[in-house]
Structure formats: structure tokens, C-alpha cells
């Protein structure tokens, strides 16, 4: 397509067709070389384990176009590591780091014309996924697997962008069990989160906030993003066995330390919420989204932040530093960036 017609700054966070995707197969206990496909479809066996027993994992990362025209990836090795960890959790074949990188590089460069220009607020979202493809009817892992990487240009995940957003505490469903699959990035967790997401949307919130699934006492995470709170020059974020370990959160912890702040990773009781000076959601899609209001959909209780309607100063500084590194505007002291078109 003629990409000059795309209104980059109006793109939603949604699927937008690009020209190519990358595929590799695990057969006879080894991975095939990557293949480039121009089809958005693939045939699949009716008894494939992914369709019945949910053997599916995925990742999400972005490619950023800098002012200098360079294409940057942010900490792709962390996504590669988490992809292997998720595979291990669902007894799936692990994609080696080199294959992961080769596939995302190829997917981005082949679709370079879809990489949104600098300054438009849009980025190229990269979606690696892996599925079990062998036919099984007993509940057991697949022998063979398919690894796919596609890319799609996206706008902000939260419609508000970098503005205070509303979040709703969900108590009627959990996205994961205490020792379940919450730390793995598998499709089942997202199917489980659909009810909470819908309820949150109906109450005018951008996302549900999950509490710990055992006691409903501690803050877990926010839909497809981790939670952080700021107080007394400290960055506080939940420790839990049922949340996804966010690459963005890990990076913000480092940036907070670089700014001279303390970092605490610990259970956060819900009662502590009003004591935070600033709270936010963070993730690849969410970037950093300041939270202005949290409503409890069961009790009707309401928590307010950002009294002047603007994101707090520390959230703003973290946002500027993180996105500055990602787009190449700010120095990258921790070597988080890989340039793809050098
Ligand atoms: N939590 C969940 C459930 C997610 O889906 C995501 C998105 O990947 C995150 C947190 C944020 O993780 P990351 O910063 O690695 O994108
Ligand atoms: C991401 O931030 O990459 C995610 O995976 C969020 C997605 C589920 C919308």
C-alpha cells in the first residue's frame, strides 16, 4: 500500500496490515530456518494443542524511528528471555535468542515503510508468538511448534495517552491464579481478563486493576500493564506470583535509581493506595500512563490523584527519560538500545 496516505498520529492501538511476516517451525526437535510470508493466514490442524489446551505464548515489543532516521529496538533480549521462560512454563519448545532476534529484525526491516515517522506518537509494534501445532487429544504438550513474528503500526494503548486516566478495581474475576500462569505471557491469561476489561470499560475506565487472587488484599497489576506508586522519593511496585514481570517496569526501576530514588518491590496493600503521591501503569503498549482516578467497582470507593489534572513530576520525568532513550533523544547509559539499520 501507499504508506504516505497513513495518518500516523491518528492510529489506534489496533491491527493494521503490513506486507510480510516471519515464520519458523520446530520439527524433529529442531528449529527450521526462518521463512518470509506475505500471507496473513496459515493452515492449522483441527486437533492442534494450541486450539484445545491453550499452548500459546506471545511477546510484545516496539521499534522506534529516531529523529536521525535510525530504527531502534528497546531491550529485545529481555523479551527473548521472557519468551523462553513462558515456553518453559507451558512445556513448549524454547526459541533460541539468535532466532528470536533474526525474526524480529527481518520482520521490521521488510516492513520498514510501516515504521511510523518520528514525532507522530506512533510506533511499530512487534508481536512474536508461538503455538503448539501437533494433533493431540490427550492433555499433553505438542511435539511440534510454530513461531511467527508480525508487526503492525500502532498509536497509544490508553486513549488518553500521557494524561491521567481512570482505572477500575475488579473483584469479580481474576486474570491468573496465585501459582498459575500469571508470570507467563500466554493467551489464556488474556482470555481470563476479558470479563474484567469489559466491566472496567462499562464503568468508564481504561483498564481493570487486579488484586492478588488469593486474599484480594494487595495490588497485583493493571490489565496489560504493571502498577507503580511514588512516595517519599521511592518507586514502589508489587511483588506477586501472579503478575507479568514487565520489561518497562524493570527499566523504570533502574531509571528511578539513576534519579537518586529508592526502589521497593513488595506486596502493596490496597489501603496504602491513598498514601501515594503519584501512581501509574507501565508496559510496552501502555508506555507510562499516569493514573488520575481509581474506582472500586464493588464498593464504590474512589481514589483521586493528579489534583491539578496533570501527570506528577516524577512520572513525567520517568516518561521523558524512558521515551527519550527509546527514540534516541536521550543518552542510553545502560545499553538498552539495538539499532537495526546501522
Ligand atoms: N502486564 C501484562 C499482563 C502485560 O500484558 C504487559 C505487556 O506486555 C505488561 C504487564 C507490561 O510488560 P512489558 O513492559 O514487558 O511490556
Ligand atoms: C504489551 O504491552 O506489549 C502487551 O502485550 C499488551 C497487549 C496485551 C495489548
Give unreliable regions as ranges: none
Main β-sheet: number of strands, strand sense, barrel status? Answer: 9 strands, antiparallel
* Separation, N- and C-terminal Cα atoms: 26 Å
Tell me the CATH topology of the largest domain: D-amino Acid Aminotransferase, Chain A, domain 2
CATH superfamily of the largest domain: D-amino Acid Aminotransferase, subunit A, domain 2
In total, the number of strands is 18
Which sequence of SSEs, written as H and E, runs from N to C?
Answer: EEEHEEEHHEEEHHEEEEHEEEEHE
Task: Tell me what the structure shows.
With 342 residues, the protein is an alpha+beta fold. The chain folds into 2 domains: 152 residues, Aminotransferase class 4, branched-chain amino acid transferase, N-terminal domain (D-amino Acid Aminotransferase, Chain A, domain 1, 2-Layer Sandwich); 162 residues, D-amino Acid Aminotransferase, subunit A, domain 2 (D-amino Acid Aminotransferase, Chain A, domain 2, Alpha-Beta Barrel). It contains 7 helices and 18 strands. The strands form 2 sheets. Strands 1, 2, 3, 4, 5, 6, 7, 8 and 18 form a 9-stranded antiparallel β-sheet that branches. It has a 6-stranded mixed beta barrel with strand order 9-10-11-12-15-16. A hairpin with a 3-residue loop joins strand 15 and strand 16. It is globular and about 55 Å long. The chain starts with 20 loop residues before the first strand and ends with a strand. The mean pLDDT is 97. Bound molecules: pyridoxal-5'-phosphate and 2-OXO-4-methylpentanoic acid (COI). The site of pyridoxal-5'-phosphate has 12 residues, from strand 12 and helix 6.
Amino acid at each position: 500500500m501507499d504508506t504516505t496516505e497513513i495518518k500516523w498520529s491518528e492510529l489506534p492501538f489496533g491491527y493494521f496490515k503490513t506486507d510480510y511476516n516471519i515464520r519458523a517451525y520446530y520439527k524433529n526437535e529442531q528449529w527450521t530456518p526462518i521463512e518470509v510470508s506475505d500471507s496473513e493466514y496459515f493452515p492449522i490442524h483441527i486437533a492442534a494443542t494450541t486450539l484445545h489446551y491453550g499452548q500459546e505464548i506471545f511477546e510484545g515489543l516496539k521499534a522506534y524511528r529516531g529523529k536521525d532516521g535510525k530504527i531502534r529496538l528497546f531491550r529485545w533480549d529481555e523479551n527473548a528471555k521472557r519468551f523462553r521462560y513462558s515456553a518453559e512454563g507451558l512445556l513448549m519448545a524454547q526459541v533460541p535468542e539468535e532466532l528470536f532476534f533474526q525474526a524480529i529484525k527481518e520482520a521490521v526491516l521488510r516492513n520498514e515503510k510501516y515504521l511510523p515517522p518520528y514525532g507522530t506518537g506512533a510506533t511499530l509494534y512487534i508481536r512474536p508468538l508461538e503455538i503448539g501445532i501437533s494433533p493431540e487429544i490427550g492433555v499433553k504438550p505438542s511435539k511440534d511448534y510454530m513461531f511467527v513474528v508480525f508487526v503492525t503500526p500502532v498509536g497509544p494503548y490508553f486513549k488518553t495517552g500521557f494524561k491521567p486516566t481512570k482505572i477500575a478495581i475488579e473483584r469479580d474475576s481474576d486474570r491468573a491464579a496465585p501459582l498459575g500462569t500469571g508470570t507467563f505471557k500466554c493467551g489464556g491469561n488474556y482470555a481470563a481478563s476479558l470479563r474484567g476489561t469489559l466491566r472496567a470499560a462499562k464503568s468508564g475506565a481504561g483498564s481493570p486493576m487486579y488484586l492478588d487472587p488469593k486474599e484480594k488484599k494487595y495490588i497485583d497489576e493493571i490489565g496489560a500493564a504493571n502498577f507503580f506508586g511514588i512516595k517519599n522519593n521511592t518507586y514502589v511496585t508489587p511483588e506477586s506470583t501472579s503478575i507479568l514481570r514487565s520489561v518497562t517496569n524493570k527499566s523504570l526501576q533502574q531509571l528511578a535509581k539513576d534519579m537518586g530514588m529508592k526502589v521497593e518491590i513488595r506486596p502493596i496493600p490496597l489501603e496504602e493506595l491513598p498514601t501515594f503521591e503519584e501512581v501509574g501503569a507501565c508496559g510496552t503498549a501502555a508506555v507510562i500512563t499516569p493514573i488520575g482516578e481509581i474506582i472500586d467497582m464493588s464498593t464504590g470507593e474512589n481514589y483521586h490523584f493528579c489534583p491539578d489534572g496533570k501527570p506528577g513530576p516524577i512520572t513525567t520525568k520517568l516518561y521523558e527519560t524512558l521515551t527519550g532513550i527509546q527514540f534516541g533523544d536521550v543518552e542510553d547509559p545502560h545499553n538498552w538500545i539495538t539499532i537495526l539499520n546501522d
